[in-house]
UniProtKB/TrEMBL annotation:
Pathway: Cofactor biosynthesis; pyrroloquinoline quinone biosynthesis. It holds the Pfam family Lactamase_B_2. InterPro entries: Metallo-B-lactamas (IPR001279), PQQ_synth_PqqB (IPR011842), RibonucZ/Hydroxyglut_hydro (IPR036866). Residues 51-265 form the Metallo-beta-lactamase domain. This is Coenzyme PQQ synthesis protein B. GO terms for biological process: pyrroloquinoline quinone biosynthetic process. It comes from the Bacteria. May be involved in the transport of PQQ or its precursor to the periplasm. Belongs to the PqqB family. It comes from Lichenibacterium ramalinae. Keywords: PQQ biosynthesis, Transport.
Length: 298
C-alpha cells in the first residue's frame, strides 16, 4: 500500500489567502523554514495503478497536477482515480468534487448522512449519475475498492460549519464525521483528519496500526483566540489540539502505533515552522508533520 498526502493543511491552506498570522507572515515573506501547503486530501493505492482519493480538496486540480501518479495515462481522456471516499462534509473535503465533473467515471463512497448532504445541494448534480456511481458506506461495514479494504468508524465531531445553527453539539459520534481503517496485504493505516477528542474507543481502534494519520489542526486549544483571529477554540471547531493534558500527543502517547503523522494542519499552527519549539516537541514525541507530496509505503 502506498499513501500520498496530496494536501496537508486544514481549510484555507497555508498560507491562508487573507491571513497575516505569525506563521502565514513567514510564508508570505518566503522564509525557508516554512513550506506552502494545500488543503487536506490523500491518495491511496494497493497496486500503483488504481488510486482512491480520500476527501476532495478545493485544491484538487492543483494536487493532481503535482502528483504524476494521478495523471491521465492513455486515450483521449483517462484517470487512475477509481474512487473517492469522504470522511465529513466540510467544504475543504467536498468542494473538490466539482473539479471531477468532466464526465469521468469514478465511484463516490460516503456515509448515509454525507450522501444525503450532497443530495441536498444541487450543485453536486454536475457529477453525472450515469458516470459517477454513489455507494453508501455503513459504519463498521468494510467496503472494497481498488484492492483496498476501507472500514469507516464514527469519531467525536460536529456538523459542517455551514449547517451550524444555534447551540452546536460538539463531540457526538455519528456518521457525519468518520475515521477510516485502510487495509491491504496485511497492513493497516488509520486516517482521522478531524476529531474532537481522543476517546478510549479511538485508542483501542488505533492500537497496533502500521500508520496513524491524525488531526493536527492546532497546537493549543486557544490558538486562534489568542491570536485574535477567531472567538472559537479548537475544541469548539471540533478539533482536539496537539498539546496540553488532554491533547492528542499526550492522549495517544501510550498507544502502540508504528508511524504517526499529523495532517490537516491549520495555518496558525507553529509546528509548520521547522525548528520551532512546538515542532521539536511533537517530533520528540514520535510524530511527523505532514507536507504536500509526502509518501508513505506500507
Amino acid at each position: 500500500m502506498k499513501i500520498v498526502i496530496l494536501g496537508s493543511a486544514a481549510g484555507g491552506g497555508f498560507p491562508q489567502w487573507n491571513c497575516r498570522c505569525p506563521t502565514c507572515q513567514l510564508a508570505w515573506t518566503g522564509d525557508p523554514r516554512v513550506s506552502r501547503r494545500t488543503q487536506s486530501s490523500l491518495a491511496v493505492t494497493a497496486d500503483g495503478r488504481d488510486w482512491v482519493l480520500i476527501n476532495a480538496s478545493p485544491d484538487l486540480r492543483q494536487q493532481i497536477i503535482a502528483t504524476p501518479d494521478l495523471h491521465p495515462r492513455e486515450g483521449s481522456r483517462d484517470t487512475p482515480i477509481a474512487a473517492v471516499v469522504l470522511t465529513n462534509g466540510d467544504v475543504d473535503h467536498v468542494a473538490g468534487l466539482l473539479t471531477l465533473r468532466e464526465r469521468q467515471p469514478f465511484a463516490l463512497h460516503a456515509s448515509p448522512s454525507l450522501q444525503a448532504l450532497l443530495d441536498t445541494n444541487p450543485v453536486f448534480g454536475v457529477l453525472d449519475p450515469a458516470l459517477v456511481s454513489r455507494h453508501v458506506m455503513t459504519l463498521e461495514v468494510p467496503s472494497t475498492m481498488a484492492g483496498l479494504r476501507f472500514t469507516s468508524f464514527a469519531v467525536p465531531g460536529k456538523v459542517p460549519l455551514f449547517l451550524e445553527s444555534g447551540d452546536v453539539e460538539i463531540g457526538r459520534e455519528t456518521d457525519m464525521t468518520v475515521g477510516l481503517v485502510i487495509e491491504a496485504a496485511g497492513r493497516r493505516a488509520i486516517y482521522v483528519p478531524g476529531c474532537a477528542s481522543v476517546t478510549d474507543a479511538l485508542l483501542e481502534r488505533v492500537a497496533g496500526a502500521d500508520l496513524l494519520l491524525f488531526d493536527g489542526t492546532t497546537y493549543t486549544d486557544d490558538e486562534m483566540v489568542r491570536l485574535g483571529l477567531s472567538p472559537k477554540t479548537s475544541a469548539r471547531m471540533g478539533h482536539v489540539a496537539m498539546s496540553g493534558p488532554h491533547g492528542s500527543v499526550t492522549a495517544l502517547a501510550g498507544t502502540a502505533v508504528a508511524q504517526r503523522v499529523f495532517v490537516h494542519i491549520n495555518n496558525t499552527n507553529p509546528v509548520l515552522v521547522e525548528g520551532s519549539p512546538e515542532r521539536k516537541a511533537v517530533e520528540a514525541a514520535g510524530w511527523r508533520i505532514a507536507h504536500d507530496g509526502m509518501e508513505v509505503a506500507l
